[in-house]
Write a structure and sequence with these properties.
418 residues; alpha/beta; Urease, subunit C, domain 1; TIM Barrel; 2 domains; eight-stranded parallel sheet; 15 helices; binds N-(iminomethyl)-L-glutamic acid; binds fe (iii) ion
C-alpha cells in the first residue's frame, strides 16, 4: 500500500462498484463512515473502513485529524481554454446591457474568438494551465473542456490541440468537446446555414481525423443556433460516433432539451428555461440534466428548477461553466453552495450532483466520482470542519486543505495567478 489516511472525521460519498447516476429521492441519501481510514495503491482506492477495525500501515500515512475526505469534484462543463478576459463586458452589463445585446454588437463569444485566433498554441496552453492549477487547488479532479472560441477550422483545431496537451500533461482526467457551433463568426454574419455547412464539411471531418474530440456540442438557444441546425450537427456527429453534450434552454424555451434527448445526448446543460414538458422529456431519457449556477448567478438569469427536477425523480449534475463571459470561475465548492443557497438543493444532493452525477455527465463514472474500491484516488481532504453541511454553509471560505490526484498529494500553494 502506498498511502493510508487515518482518523477521517467523515469519509463521504462511498458507493458500491458499478453504481451509476443517482436520481430523485436517492440524491438525499449520502453514504458515509464516521471516524474512518482509507488506503490507496498505484493511484487507486484499495480499501476503507472504520478506524476501530484498522490494522493497515503504509509508507506514506496522513493523519486527517477528524477532517472530511471526499472524492474530488468532476466539472463536466467548462470553456477554460481562452485568451484574455472580458471584464469590460461585465461592466457593460452593470450599465444595463444584456448578454444577448453584447453578443449582437460583436462582443461576447466573438470577442473571445478574435483574441483566441490571435494567440499561439503555446500562449493558450500557458494561460489555460494557470486555470487548471487553480481549479485543482479548488478540489477539481476531472474536467471537460470545450472548443468554440476558434470558429474557423484552423483555430478550432488549435484550441482542441491545447485541450489534448492539457490531457497529456496535467494530473486531471480531461475530456474534450467540439463546440464549433458556439456562435456564428463575422465571416458568416446573417448566414447561419452557411456556417453550419462549413462546420459539417470542413471542421468536423478534420477534428475527427485527428481524434481531437470526445463529444460534440451546440449552443442551441434564442439568438444562437436553431433546433434545425442543431439537429444537422448532432446527426453528423453521431455518424462519427460523437455523443452530444449540448447547451440548451439558457436564454429561452428553445427546444434544445428535446433535440438533445432525441440524439441521445449524454447531458443537456444550463436549463434555466425548463418546465413540465422538459422535465417529462428528461424522465424518459438517459440524458443528464446539468445545471450551471455560476452562469445563472453571473448573468442574473432565472435559477434552473433543480427542486422540480429532483422531486420528479430526475438526477441532476452540477458544473462550473468556467468561461470568460458568463462564469469566470471554476470553483466547484462555490457551485455546491450556490446550488443549495439559490436552487434549494440539499447538501447531500449537491454532493451527488458535483461528484458521481457530474462524472456520468462526462462519461468517467467508472473511474471517478465516488469513494469506491477500484476507482482513481482523486480526493479532497477538507479543513477541520464539523461535518459536510458546513461545505455549502460557509460559502466563499477556503475549505480545502489537501488535494490528492492519482494517489499523489498535489502541491497547491503555488497554484495562484502568476
Ligand atoms: O455556457 N452559453 C454559451 N456559452 C457559454 C458562454 C460563453 C461566453 O460568453 O464566452 C456559456 O455560458
Ligand atoms: Fe457553457
Amino acid at each position: 500500500m502506498d498511502l493510508l489516511i487515518r482518523n477521517i472525521g467523515q469519509l463521504i460519498q462511498i458507493l458500491e462498484p458499478g453504481t451509476g447516476r443517482i436520481a430523485g429521492i436517492d440524491m438525499s441519501r449520502l453514504n458515509l463512515i464516521e471516524n474512518a481510514w482509507m488506503s490507496v495503491k498505484d493511484g487507486i482506492i484499495t480499501g476503507y473502513g472504520p478506524m476501530s477495525a484498522c490494522n493497515a500501515s503504509a509508507k506514506n500515512e496522513i493523519d486527517a485529524q477528524g477532517k472530511i475526505v471526499m472524492p474530488a469534484f468532476c466539472d463536466s462543463h467548462t470553456h477554460l481554454v481562452y485568451s484574455g478576459s472580458r471584464e469590460q463586458e461585465f461592466v457593460d452589463r452593470l450599465h444595463g446591457l444584456s448578454y444577448e445585446e453584447i453578443a449582437k454588437k460583436g462582443g461576447g463569444i466573438n470577442n473571445s474568438a478574435r483574441r483566441l485566433r490571435a494567440a499561439s498554441e503555446e500562449e493558450l496552453y500557458r494561460e489555460a494551465m494557470v486555470r487548471i492549477r487553480e481549479i485543482i487547488s479548488q478540489g477539481t479532479g476531472a474536467v471537460e473542456i470545450k472548443s468554440g472560441y476558434g470558429l474557423d477550422t484552423e483555430s478550432e483545431l488549435k484550441m482542441l490541440r491545447v485541450i489534448r496537451k492539457i490531457k497529456e500533461t496535467s494530473p486531471l482526467t480531461v475530456r474534450s468537446t467540439f463546440l464549433g457551433a458556439h456562435a456564428v463568426p463575422p465571416e458568416f454574419t446573417g448566414n447561419q446555414d452557411g456556417y453550419v455547412d462549413y462546420i459539417l464539411s470542413d471542421m468536423l471531418p478534420r477534428i475527427v481525423e485527428e481524434g481531437l474530440a470526445d463529444f460534440i456540442d451546440v449552443f442551441c438557444d434564442k439568438g444562437f443556433f436553431t433546433v434545425e441546425n442543431t439537429a444537422r450537427i448532432l446527426e453528423a456527429g453521431a455518424s462519427f460516433g460523437l455523443r452530444p453534450k449540448i447547451h440548451a434552454n439558457e436564454l429561452a424555451f428553445s427546444g434544445g432539451i428535446q433535440i438533445g434527448i432525441k440524439y441521445n445526448a449524454l447531458s443537456v446543460d444550463h436549463l434555466e428555461c425548463a418546465g413540465k414538458d422538459e422535465i417529462n422529456a428528461l424522465l424518459e431519457s438517459q440524458t443528464m440534466p446539468t445545471l450551471l449556477p455560476g452562469a445563472a448567478l453571473f448573468l442574473g438569469l432565472n435559477w434552473p428548477p433543480a427542486r422540480d427536477m429532483i422531486n420528479a425523480g430526475l438526477p441532476v449534475a452540477l458544473a462550473s461553466d468556467f468561461n470568460p463571459g458568463s462564469s469566470p470561475t471554476g470553483n466547484m465548492m462555490l457551485m455546491l453552495a450556490l446550488a443549495c443557497i439559490s436552487m434549494k438543493m440539499m447538501p447531500e444532493e449537491a454532493i451527488h450532483a458535483s461528484t458521481i452525477n457530474s462524472a456520468c455527465a462526462m462519461g468517467v463514472e467508472k473511474e471517478l466520482g465516488s469513494i469506491t474500491i477500484g476507482k482513481k484516488a482523486n480526493l479532497i481532504i477538507t479543513k477541520k470542519i464539523s461535518g459536510y453541511n458546513y461545505l455549502p454553509y460557509a460559502f466563499g471560505s477556503r475549505l480545502i486543505d489537501t488535494v490528492i490526484l492519482n494517489g499523489n498529494e498535489i502541491e497547491t500553494k503555488y497554484y495562484s495567478y502568476d
